[in-house]
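Standup, Tuesday
Yesterday: got the pipeline producing structure tokens again.
Today: sanity-check two examples.
Blockers: none.

Example 1:
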Amino acid sequence: MDLRRQALEHVRSLSRRYDDVVPVDVLRAGFETPRGRISYGSFFSGIYRPKQFSGPAALCLITAPPKERRDAPYDDEYDEVTGTFTYHYRRAQSDSPRARLSAAADNRALQEALRLGVPLIYFRGIAPGQYTPVAPVFIMRDDPITETVAFQAALPLADTTSAGLTSDEVTRRYATREAHIRLHQHRFRERVLRAYRTRCAVCALREAPLLQAAHIIEDRDPLGAAAVVNGISLCAIHHLAYDRNLLGIAPDGVVHIASRLLEEIDGPMLRVGLQGFHGSAIEQPRERRNRPDPERLRARFERFSAVASGL
């Protein structure tokens, strides 16, 4: 098995092991091969080609996670019209000849990946020290004027042979869109859970693997922005109850359980896990700017009330 394919398969196994968000230390550690240990890079540079590779093409593209306490919209530079991600050339960190040569070499490694049609791995920073891999991706276009390349993802079962790219345009567009949605969801979850100090707003559960970021207004709605004010940290059962309009949250943050559930008699999960929170207030983020938007809560609560009343 060639080293590039081995790297792809290994990073997919890491993605499964770490539920799609891999610690950077694990990525730096890499994996063993007959040619020595291969890392996925230092993650200080955005383009990486291991020294063990005999070919000239890069292996990894890296986008660093957003800075802490930045409230700007999350943008992974996905273009819905072309169905591609955009990635900028590496720029020299200084005017020294060494820095310029290093940046130029990395950018040539991108151009070689396009020329050869070989698969790469894209690491998108989700939070400090955490990255989501997208593999494989392929460079589709190089634009020296804007100093960018465009790349698409491919599905693992239709990705590549040793001869290079085999998947068709429709497959790649689908895979790229799915990758964009996945990255978007991971980033939204990370921001929401951090705002709520990694606990369920209803029951205060702190077990991170059981916590999810619930949208107040769903993505497809014009008000459904991927902003913390449109999210609430909920455990899996309360998220499902919220999505099914069995649990509502009023604009003042008070929890309401659907009347038909309040009237039911069942085991302790219903009594303690749902009925017991009727009339309680959710725990909100400490920072006012991260608290749920009352107007969005009002719109969502109206829907809950309509469903609960059978309208």
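Example 2:
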Amino acid sequence: MTLCLRAFGAYRSDTSSGWRPADYDVRNLVKSLKGEPFKGYTNFKLGGKWYQITANDSGPAYILWSNWAGVRLRDDLKLGKVTLVPVPSSSQTAFGQDTCPVRMATSIATLAPTLAAVGNFLRHKTKQPKAHSEGGTRDPDRIEPTLACNVTDKKLPVVLIDDVKTTGGHLIACARLLRKNGVKVEHVLVAGRAVWEAVPDPYKVSPEDIEAVPTFEDF
């Protein structure tokens, strides 16, 4: 299968290797979307307009994100109207629970209702340990059984929405389960893509088929 990921930007996973300003900028966008603290501010320009991203007000981050994602849906994916399915956070045990990916999907659908609707089709059966800080798994074979699925509309193609792609294990697990429930899933939009090696331009990240050669680590 194909699961093509597009990211607003990329930043290095290893902070000890020397970050460029762009690494901090993309990381700050993700933190603002998630409502997490960071110092200072970051300015982004999109479509001739400047957006100042801070930790105190996530509004500009969501406007920037939804405008970028809307362009991707309209000009790159060209699927017609789609269902945006938020990837459940580790603590999400209810459909539609307020999480960063749910807010990200909602902001896109609010901006471009002719292009997208939100489908809260996924949740975890029980709260899961976080992969980056609590030893949670990144293996899609182990993640998929933790998910519950309730597809309410199979007519539209699905685009997965998440804040960050690290290994892609959670995204692949979600795509597999949704396909088993009768929907077409071939695309993912994320705000940040964590990479081991710095990319030439963190704001021009090439689309990546994350199902082509998947590798996963538990740590």
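Quick observation on example 2: The radius of gyration is 16 Å. The chain has a mean pLDDT of 93.
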